[in-house]
Write a structure and sequence with these properties.
This protein is of the alpha/beta class. It folds into three domains: about 15-80, Winged helix-like DNA-binding domain superfamily/Winged helix DNA-binding domain (Arc Repressor Mutant, subunit A, Orthogonal Bundle), CATH 1.10.10; about 100-115 and about 370-465, Aspartate Aminotransferase, domain 1 (Alpha-Beta Complex), CATH 3.90.1150; about 120-355, Type I PLP-dependent aspartate aminotransferase-like (Major domain) (Aspartate Aminotransferase, domain 2), CATH 3.40.640. The chain is about 40% helix and about 15% strand. β1 and β2 (about 75-80) form a beta hairpin. It is globular and about 70 Å long. One of its GO terms (molecular function) is pyridoxal phosphate binding.
Length: about 475
């Protein structure tokens, strides 16, 4: 380990950035060579007379710039200045701000970066234009999807989601939202009880309200649905299905342990309840075995490419028990007739030539980088969720109330989603917000949004306005 101590005199700005700048200069000048092991956070803090938290933020800033990297159990090492990544596609989905000012930073939505996918799309469309496949892609596809597209889907699920099924077991949908609608339509009718986590995906809430299902929330803890609460709800309510997101739960970003998944499957089988497993984030956690792999006979598994590859392709996959397949296919026919063949062809080509895997790997790197960024800016004790998730769950300290905090961040130019949007029924919503880390077009924009959120947390006077 080097005895490196940065020279900070003559530099201006926040102390953690000053340290990161000094590190960058010493690497550029050759004072620190690639592979050099840096001092521990505590050791460097002692030498500089600063807090450990300041050094932690400085190292996080340097890692964001590609200067250093950490290895669990070994330490932090100089990596050198890497070539800059290609700039992400600049998109601003926010409405213009009132008075002609800059649009707010929208951190309400969870979507992947698009930059790498753009070139892959250009290539795929060029190849399609020169192929003899175009005519076959302009007609109606079978309700379950074209056979080559389902075969590509089977390969994708095995590679990225650890679901091993035959192509005949897969049905194509237009994204995960449509897949959830199809699954619910296949097992329930208006007025039937559907269970969900007490905090659940907004899309599931919208579907239940639109289709007339009676959605009931089940208590959750730091590991997901509480088995005893699920058992009690099954006995009392006689539900048709349980909709759940066990991997990277939306909104809390919790990953349910394997033992808990097995326990939920046992309870569902005991009461004849169908599990609708939403695994759109499963690609981010390679060791999280889906419930479908544990209990395929009672699980309708749904996922899509929306969070991993491209939201705009609108490609979803459903895997269903054999006895439910006719009902699921009938629901697809009623709700959409069939998934559009052209985007399914693009997705299948990406899966076959490896483009989809490259996009996913880029997305994983970006998600991890933005999580590190968030945890370097926001107070660690308030941030919840898996460190690879595309979103974080921010639990607000006293005296903040969620509605006041949402208003305060909006006043500062950042839009986040309050916990009430995810709360099922009339249950009391926690004082927390979900922050989508990958909606901003660049890391710099994400950092500006996160700093505004951090500044909001430190403005307790605003939290009391609602009671004045």
């Amino acid at each position: 380990m080097t005895s490196w101590t940065p020279i900070l005199e003559g530099r201006t700005g926040p102390l953690y950035r000053v340290i990161a700048d000094a590190l960058a200069d010493d690497i550029a000048e050759g004072t620190l060579s690639v592979g050099t092991r840096l001092p521990t956070h505590r050791d460097l803090a002692f030498r500089l007379g600063v807090t450990v938290g300041t050094v932690t933020r400085a190292y996080a800033e340097a890692e964001k710039r590609g200067l250093i990297g950490g290895e669990v159990g070994r330490g932090t090492f100089v990596q050198g200045q890497r070539p800059p990544a290609p700039p992400p596609l600049q998109q601003n989905w926010s409405a213009p701000a009132a008075g002609g000012g800059p649009a707010p930073i929208d951190m309400t939505t969870i979507r992947p970066e698009h930059a790498v996918a753009v070139q892959a799309l250009r290539t795929a469309l060029s190849e399609l234009a020169a192929s003899d496949r175009l005519a076959s892609l302009l007609g109606y596809a079978p309700h379950a999807g074209l056979a080559p597209h389902r075969a590509a889907g089977a390969a994708w699920l095995e590679r990225q989601h650890r679901v091993s099924v035959s192509p005949d077991s897969i049905l194509m949908t237009t994204g995960a939202q449509n897949a959830i609608a199809v699954a619910l339509s296949a097992v329930a009718r208006p007025g039937d009880v559907i269970l969900a986590e007490r905090l659940t995906n907004i899309g599931a809430k919208t579907l239940a309200a639109n289709q007339g299902y009676h959605l009931e929330g089940v208590a959750i803890d730091e590991h997901g649905i509480v088995p005893e609460a699920f058992d009690s709800a099954c006995r009392r309510l006689g539900p048709k299905a349980l909709y759940l997101v066990p991997t990277m739960h939306n909104p809390t970003a919790v990953v349910m342990p394997q033992a808990r998944r097995a326990e939920i499957a046992v309870i569902a089988r005991r009461y004849g309840v169908i599990l609708i497993e939403d695994d759109v984030f499963g690609f981010m956690v390679p060791d999280a075995k889906p419930i479908q792999a544990i209990a395929p006979d009672i699980t309708i598994y749904v996922t899509s490419l929306s969070k991993s590859v491209s939201a705009g392709l609108r490609i979803g996959y459903v895997v269903t028990p054999p006895d439910l397949r006719p009902r699921v296919e009938a629901a697809i026919r009623a709700l959409q007739y069939s998934a559009p063949a052209l985007p399914a062809e693009v997705a299948s080509r990406w899966i076959q030539d490896g483009s989809a895997d490259r996009i996913v790997e880029t997305q994983r790197v970006e998600d991890l980088a933005r999580q590190r960024l968030a945890r370097s800016i926001l107070p660690v004790e308030a941030v919840y969720g898996h460190p690879a998730a595309q979103h974080i769950w921010l639990v607000l300290p006293e005296p903040w109330r969620r509605e006041d905090f949402v208003a305060e961040t909006r006043r500062r130019g950042v839009v986040v989603t309050g916990a009430d949007a995810f709360t099922v029924g009339r249950a009391s919503a926690p004082h927390a917000v979900r922050i989508g880390l990958c909606m901003p077009g660049t890391r710099d924009e994400a950092a500006r949004g996160l700093r505004a959120i951090a500044d909001s947390l430190e403005a307790p006077a605003s939290a009391m306005l609602s009671i004045v």
